[in-house]
């Protein structure tokens, strides 16, 4: 199976093995294209020396589309819970104390937090 135009389209920033075929080559060798994609290769299909399509494994497709991503209702719930924590009386008192600190005390508190010493 010859590679046509691979220098133009193959592997651009993907970190994956890639090859490029013309649409005719892909059509005539589709079984090989599927096997290569199944092995983790990204196969670019070109038309007139320009990438027109990409064949990847189902695993790579799922990575790219993140089918397991949280839905909007779940994200809304997480955001609402975080916002409620930020608006608590304890959080408000913490912000008040923060703005009352002078620069030396603020720097000392930042160092303690970074070191994990929050006493």
* CATH topology grouping of the largest domain: YefM-like fold
Total count of helical runs of at least 4 residues = 7
What number is the mean pLDDT? 81
Oligomer: single chain
Q: Please tell me what the overall shape is.
A: elongated
CATH architecture of the largest domain: 3-Layer(aba) Sandwich
Biggest sheet statistics: 3 strands, mixed
Q: Report the top-level CATH class of the largest domain.
A: Alpha Beta
The CATH superfamily of the largest domain is known as YefM-like domain
Give the class from helix and strand content and strand pairing. Answer: alpha+beta
| Beginning-to-end CA distance, first to last residue | 67 Å
User: Rg to the nearest angstrom?
Assistant: 27 Å
**Low-confidence parts, pLDDT < 50 over ≥5 residues?**
1-17
Which H/E pattern describes the elements?
HEHHEEHHHH
What can be said about this structure in brief?
By secondary structure, the chain is α+β, with helices and mostly antiparallel strands.
How are the secondary structure elements laid out?
Blueprint lengths: L5 H4 L8 E5 H6 L1 H9 L3 E6 L2 E6 L2 H8 L6 H15 L2 H12 L2 H13 L4
Parallel strand pairs: 1-2
Antiparallel strand pairs: 2-3
Keywords:
single chain, elongated, 3 strands, 119 residues, three-stranded mixed β-sheet, YefM-like fold, 7 helices, alpha+beta, 2 domains, disordered N terminus
Describe the protein in words:
- The protein has seven helices and three strands.
- By secondary structure, the chain is α+β, with helices and mostly antiparallel strands.
- It folds into two domains: 60 residues, YefM-like domain (YefM-like fold, 3-Layer(aba) Sandwich), CATH 3.40.1620; 44 residues, no CATH class.
- The longest helix has 15 residues.
């Amino acid at each position: 199976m010859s590679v046509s135009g691979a220098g133009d389209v193959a592997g651009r920033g993907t970190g994956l093995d890639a090859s490029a075929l013309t649409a005719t080559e892909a059509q005539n060798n589709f079984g090989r294209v599927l096997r290569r994609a199944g092995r983790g290769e990204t196969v670019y299909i070109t038309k007139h020396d320009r990438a027109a399509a990409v064949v990847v494994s189902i695993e790579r497709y799922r990575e790219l589309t993140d089918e397991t991503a949280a839905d909007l209702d779940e994200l809304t719930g997480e955001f609402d819970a975080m916002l409620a924590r930020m608006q608590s009386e304890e959080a408000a008192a913490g912000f008040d104390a923060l703005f009352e600190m002078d620069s030396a005390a603020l720097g000392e508190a930042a160092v303690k937090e970074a070191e994990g010493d929050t006493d």
